[in-house]
TrEMBL record:
<comment type="similarity">
    <text>Belongs to the XPF family.</text>
</comment>
<protein>
    <recommendedName>
        <fullName>DNA repair endonuclease XPF</fullName>
    </recommendedName>
</protein>
<dbReference type="GO" id="GO:0000724">
    <property type="term" value="P:double-strand break repair via homologous recombination"/>
</dbReference>
<dbReference type="InterPro" id="IPR047520">
    <property type="entry name" value="XPF_nuclease"/>
</dbReference>
<dbReference type="Pfam" id="PF02732">
    <property type="entry name" value="ERCC4"/>
</dbReference>
<feature type="domain" description="ERCC4">
    <location>
        <begin position="609"/>
        <end position="689"/>
    </location>
</feature>
<keyword id="KW-0227">DNA damage</keyword>
<dbReference type="GO" id="GO:0000110">
    <property type="term" value="C:nucleotide-excision repair factor 1 complex"/>
</dbReference>
<dbReference type="GO" id="GO:0003697">
    <property type="term" value="F:single-stranded DNA binding"/>
</dbReference>
<dbReference type="GO" id="GO:0000014">
    <property type="term" value="F:single-stranded DNA endodeoxyribonuclease activity"/>
</dbReference>
<feature type="compositionally biased region" description="Basic and acidic residues">
    <location>
        <begin position="429"/>
        <end position="438"/>
    </location>
</feature>
<dbReference type="GO" id="GO:0003684">
    <property type="term" value="F:damaged DNA binding"/>
</dbReference>
<feature type="compositionally biased region" description="Low complexity">
    <location>
        <begin position="329"/>
        <end position="342"/>
    </location>
</feature>
<dbReference type="InterPro" id="IPR006166">
    <property type="entry name" value="ERCC4_domain"/>
</dbReference>
<dbReference type="InterPro" id="IPR011335">
    <property type="entry name" value="Restrct_endonuc-II-like"/>
</dbReference>
<keyword id="KW-0238">DNA-binding</keyword>
<dbReference type="GO" id="GO:1901255">
    <property type="term" value="P:nucleotide-excision repair involved in interstrand cross-link repair"/>
</dbReference>
Length: 743
């Protein structure tokens, strides 16, 4: 990740941007489509790839495909167009699959590839991915993905590959790693958080046996993938887990969030986060609980000594350490003397105790680095330098900008004022913001900074500091709502910064910097890498590097031992991967089906057909029906989702959709229409075995009707519509098998 997969994919697209070829691109998001089109237009590609959406009518899409070229298309549209023969499948030059690690046996992309290979044996298929960790999850994941893609060749390019390593070594940027020591209070807080997490992990091991103990260690907890690991293992049995286990999992999430807050944000924000948990416990928690209690609104870790240390030290970072007993006695004596003097008529000035407001150590280092760049620019002939500062998220960028513009103490005092007096602070903020906006409008209308002849406008999702006269500073987060991975690459290419400050560690962005320097060898680049020494932040970064390296080494070993069949690419006629016969092997004889009811006489098989609603192609079921040898005809249906026979109509509902349609009454109207037009209306309720659900509460089914109970509403539905049949299926595979039996 970060080695420039988008650059390689863009070059591949360039090869097929011609009218004499017909190429489809699947697997791209809207942001990725816009990025590739803009980049290709900037490179002078004419015509660029076209985007096929539902706004284009079906007949127009057919004419568009016959013109040739390269198309971005969603999986649903391409599947429907292939099944209705709007796409000349035999004329397709090839398919490009982006983010190939998402391909599964029943995904829409896999269905497209199957339809393509059945009728086109000469076209190409190319898959691309930059997520090696996703291929190491599960058993034999790499081979399964290659099987679904009909691919025989695998190319691996890790960071330690010889060509890549030699290229980066020749043009390595000037990296200065700054190991920043944490303050004594931050060290104490981090130690308390470690102790609390270890205690929660021990409680989690004792409270449930559904979790693999290998993942319950501190190394996995500090990684961002820990929540997903827990979710995957516990989701199938979530209703069987005790309340205490769920509470411990929630506590670990909270403590992991505190670890991020400690290194990324200021002391006031961190204290507010800690204090809000205690305040929530005080208001809504069970006051009579003990440490071993199994019923608690918030975690039991709040009663531990480490939690008390966490609260006291985080409070001391803001307000200062509480005075000791001797100092308290001295203060009381001074107050008594001042009171007597006031009674005698003597004016005494009250000493004002100022809060401590401990600053984030990284802020001071960033300011020092900027001063060093301003004083000692090694390339003054290139003009005023551009400095890019990359933080973890938008909030960290905003706080760092305030620190560099108004100062750390003023910013923390402002945050403390917001905390202590939110209403007064909001009123003063509105007046300040209005005056500042007026000043900015006047200022920006007359002066605008430029870098290398390019005007430095406000960057979407980032910040620009114009307070420095002799250099320009851009702040941008590497994680957020928009696709920051592409935007950071654009910023590097557009503004070409000579100095980059990594406020927070990001493995992907480090690789992006290496690629930028390797493709711009003559451009000077110095990178300041800021890390807290001997901290969880440093440990997390090193673990992410190690985890990716281990994943690639496993892929290399799997590639060396992988046995790939000759017919894997799907080009031969009798390919078992393209077989649509779901008949068991014990019922097969020389490639034909034996009908035992006719004394073993051979019977001709007739291809069945199912009419499927257009909107259903977002699900997995149409692909699985097609694999079982049943033809599919996509039609926009007004009643039902699947029509199996002229008499059988099926309305498919997932559990969430079932609950929603029962609550808003939509299912009643759907059942009314099905019973009016079909003799055998069916409601198919499809759930996932890996996702737990239950329709009843712990008290079981009651004889009394309850308007909020799902079972009561289902009972009413069957009473109103006696012809309606309800079928339950544990998975889409079972639904496809059931449809075949009904046919």
């Amino acid at each position: 990740s970060g080695l420039g997969l988008e650059r390689i994919f863009k070059e591949i697209i360039k090869l097929y941007c011609a009218d004499h070829s017909l190429v489809f691109i699947v697997g791209c998001t809207d942001n990725e489509q816009a990025y590739f089109i803009l980049e290709l237009i900037a490179d002078g590609i004419d015509p660029p790839p076209r985007v096929v959406t539902t706004d284009i009518l079906s007949n127009e899409r057919r004419e568009l495909y016959l013109q040739g070229g390269i198309f971005f298309v969603t999986s649903r549209i391409l599947t429907v167009d292939m099944l209705t023969f709007r796409v000349p499948i035999e004329l397709i030059s090839g398919l490009l699959v982006y983010r190939a690690h998402r391909i599964t046996d029943s995904s829409p992309e896999s269905f497209i590839l199957r339809l393509y290979r059945e009728k086109n044996k000469h076209g190409f298929i190319k898959g691309f991915s930059d997520s090696s960790i996703d291929f190491s999850k599960g058993y034999n994941q790499l081979e399964l993905v290659m099987k679904n893609l009909f691919l025989k060749n695998l190319y691996l390019y890790p960071r330690f590959q010889a060509t890549i390593r030699n290229t980066f070594d020749k043009s390595a940027p000037d990296v200065i790693e700054l190991q920043i020591p944490m303050t004594s209070s931050m060290i104490e807080i981090e130690l308390s958080l470690r102790n609390l997490i270890n205690i929660c992990l021990q409680d989690l091991k004792q409270s449930t046996t559904y979790l693999d103990n290998d993942i319950l260690n501190t190394d996995n907890v500090i990684l961002t993938t820990f929540d997903r690991l827990i979710y995957i293992q516990l989701q199938p049995v979530w209703n069987q887990i005790s309340f205490r286990t769920k509470q411990i999992i929630n506590d670990i999430k909270t403590l992991r969030l505190f670890i991020l807050y400690l290194t990324q944000y200021d002391c006031v924000t961190f204290y507010n986060a800690i204090y809000s948990v205690y305040q929530n416990e005080r208001l809504y928690g069970n006051k009579s609980k003990s440490i071993n209690s199994s019923q608690a609104s918030t975690g039991n870790w709040l009663l531990l000594p480490a939690a008390e240390t966490l609260l006291m030290v985080s409070k001391a970072r803001v307000f200062g350490e509480p005075p000791k007993k001797k100092k308290l006695q001295q203060q009381q004596e001074q107050q008594q003397q001042q009171q007597t003097q006031q009674d005698d008529g003597v004016n005494v000035e009250q000493p004002v105790t100022k809060p401590k407001l401990e600053e984030n150590p990284k802020w001071k280092v960033v300011a020092d680095v900027l001063d060093e760049i301003r004083k000692k620019d090694n390339f003054p002939e290139l003009g005023s330098p551009c400095v890019l500062i990359v933080c973890a998220d938008d909030r960290a960028c905003s706080q760092l900008k305030q620190y560099l513009t108004i100062g750390g103490h003023e910013m923390l005092e402002h945050l403390l004022e917001l905390t202590l007096h939110p209403t007064l602070a909001n009123e003063s903020n509105e007046s300040k913001n209005s005056t500042e906006k007026d000043k900015k409008k006047k200022h920006t209308s007359t002066t605008k900074k430029s870098i290398n002849g390019i005007e430095l406008d406000d960057i979407e999702g980032g910040y620009v500091i114009n307070d420095f006269s002799d250099m320009s500073v851009v702040l941008y987060p590497f994680s957020g709502n928009i696709d920051n991975h592409f935007v950071l690459g654009k910023i590097l290419l557009k503004y070409r910064p000579r100095y980059v400050i990594l406020h927070d560690a990001s493995l992907t962005f480090v690789r992006q910097l290496e690629v930028f320097k390797a493709t711009n060898i003559d451009h000077p680049l110095r990178v300041y890498f800021l890390l807290y020494s001997n901290s969880i932040e440093e440990q997390r970064y090193l673990l992410s590097v190690k985890k990716e390296k281990d994943a690639f080494e496993n892929l290399i070993r799997e590639k060396a031992t992988m046995v790939i069949p000759e017919e894997r690419d799907g080009r031969c006629e009798d390919n078992p991967l393209l077989s649509r016969d779901a008949t068991p092997a014990n019922q097969m004889a020389y490639g034909t089906v034996i009908d035992t009811r006719k004394g073993g006489l051979l019977s001709e098989t007739v291809r069945a057909k199912v009419i499927v609603d257009m909107r259903e192609f977002r699900s997995e079921l149409p692909s699985l029906i097609y694999k079982r040898g049943i033809d599919i005809e996509p039609v926009t249906l007004e009643v039902g989702d699947y029509i199996l026979t002229p008499e059988i109509c099926v309305e498919r509902k997932s559990v969430s959709d079932l609950i929603e349609s029962l609550n808003n009454g939509r299912l009643y109207t759907q059942a009314l229409q099905m019973t009016r037009f079909y003799k055998r209306p069916i409601l198919l309720i499809e759930f996932n075995q890996n996702h737990v659900f239950h329709l009843t509460n712990k008290n079981g089914i009651s004889n009394d009707f309850n308007s909020n109970d799902i079972t009561s509403k289902l009972a009413l539905l069957t009473m109103h519509f006696p012809k309606l049949r309800i079928l339950w299926c544990p998975s889409p595979h079972a639904s496809a098998e059931l449809f075949e039996d009904l046919k």
